[in-house]
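Dissemination and training. As part of the outreach component of the grant, students in the summer workshop were shown how a complex can be specified as a set of sequence lines and then modelled as a single object. The example used during the hands-on session is reproduced here so that future cohorts can follow it. Participants entered these lines:
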Amino acid sequence: MAPRIPLQSPLQHSDTVATAGGVDHHPSQPTGWRRWLLTTNHKEIGTLYLIFSLSMFFVGGIFALVVRAELFQPGLQLVEPEFFNQMTTMHGLIMVFAAVMPAFTGLANWMIPLQIGAPDMALPRLNNFSFWLLPVAFTLLLSTLLMPGGGPNFGWTFYAPLSTTYAPASTTFFILALHIAGISSILGAINIIATILNMRAPGMRLMDMPLFVWTWLITAFLLIAVMPVLAGVITMMLMDINFGTSFFDAGGGGDPVLFQHLFWFFGHPEVYIMILPAFGIVSAIIPTFARKPLFGYASMVYATAAIALLSFLVWAHHMFVVGLPLVAELFFMYSTMLIAVPTGVKVFNWVTTLFRGSISFESPMLFALAFVVLFTIGGFSGLMLAIAPADFQYHDTYFVVAHFHYVLVPGAIFAIMAGVYYWLPKWTGHYPNETLAKWHFWFSVIGVNLTFFPMHFAGLAGMPRRIPDYALQFADFNLVSSIGAFFFGASQLLFVLVIILCVRGGKPAPAKAWEGAVDLEWTVPSPAPLHTFETPPVFRQIEK
Amino acid sequence: MRSHQAEGVRKTVTKTIFALMGMFAFAFALVPLYDVFCEVTGINGKVSTSAQQVLSNEVNRDRYVTVQFITRTSAGLPWRLGVETRQVQIHPGQMTEVDFTFSNRSQSASWGRAVPSVSPSTASAHVRKVSCFCFQEQRLDANENLTIPLVFQLDNTLPEDIATVTLVYTLYPLEESNERPIVARHMNNKNGEI
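and obtained this result:
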């Protein structure tokens, strides 16, 4: 189902190539599987990332469906509680580190060079390496499920000492897998920063960049800042487990609360790593289909930067119930609420871009509009959770589960799907089947809300998260959630079908596949040839 | 890639690698920084791990503070930690002595350590321990009982809104070690002199 990018001679590559005797960079271009293993082309690596992410989306999805099947009715029916815990943990880890993050990196690989007029990423061989680390990391992580004692069962947040003193024997493999995945993210971030800062088309200033490029630049800086902290935390865990240190063991003078501080110092910026590129995608799609320039471009950039900076000051709002002193509760409560301001600026700008636009509702636009509405619902429940005294009631209930699934599924994942539908014509040269795509959209919207909206009620009524069994009064909400989850899961098969059909054929797309699209990627032919912008475009002439 | 671009990329990569190494070191630096921060602000319920001087003997007779004692044993240590009384009423400034009894209920010797914590955490800076079993590790022979006093004072600057202070001691097992001095026995001998 990989988009077949036809190998063409350099002179055909893009309409901007004018140099005589265009050099063939790959005299011995490998074919077959070696082509994909050894590729240094940003488009092929982007495709690999996206296929990997899609496969892991289904693996993580199956884990979620095991959880939902067990929760279909009260009592223990299908799986043992120990296996249930492994499923919730693996679902979280796979979705965060193997589905959402690689999907954004894949989109960055494909689109950033095209959007800034660069011939490739700055470090193509490193790019290949950072992709191929991922299958290694997640094969290792998934293999822990088959090990004696089972895989990680302590939740994706792996709080010590649950993940050290009381952890299964496979935890060392989990740590190694996370290290490898972290190195992959870090290398990807270095590459993206180096590309954006050095390889923009002549005449393109930072404030001329498309917002997807901007949001990814800021995301990459967040990755550089916090992935080493994650690496540090899991290294400390490794030493506590294997080398007798006591970073998180109170008996040896350590402190379990320190683990939570360190983890969330990584973990909260990580949340924004998973949403900022989504903001960028939506900021590209809404102006295209509203046929108006984005309202408040500069304020979008500053709001993104503000969210990124604030993300370092709010981590302890995940820890309101560990016994923080009052002054800390207040500080983290107010700083968290402050994030609603730049986020509100973004939502305002999207809505204002739509205002009096000539809107058409193709599938990318449908997903982007659903993103704006449903992500905002997730934002509001986040504000409720930010109220420290109220969080004492909500903490570790299904209300939290509802909140972060609203910002991640109809947030990050809908934005990724919107981006896929938006750029598929550029990748494959064909429009996706619009009828099927619309069915996919409506099934997804209904499925998401059916799954996650009742979780708000179950949580407010007191249902704790991460439990395989529950009190009878939660039965109806869980029944609805489980039906919704299977409906949503099944409708994603439609997504795969649309992509396969689109790769194999469909209505041919012109270079500028959408009427209102303006960015540089729409100046190269569809499908984008393997090599583009070998001679940099002159940005001003194209744009203004 | 053109050469000035290659140069720019090299510089950017160098800078990001330095930032990466800095952040990795920062994560480890946070461990001691966290302890220092908690000690300075006293917001973690942690108290000094060594004996402190009595600041003043002036007792505020007008004010009573309830001090509660909670003892817990973590998994893996067959010990019990008892306390002669669960609760005392004292005045700020008043020197107080409370006996704690360690009992090893297994048939073999083992090492343990009681880790203290104070609640509310804002009171921790005002608890002055002159002598505490929690300053040392203990070794108990099979079925041995060991009584050690806690001598402490709540200083006069204890905030007015604090009426109850809870001292929590959690026992943790330690690996057998011959290098550790047998401090507990030493203290036990001096018991009468404190």
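Chain A has 17 helices and no strands. Students were then asked to discuss how this feature might be tested experimentally.
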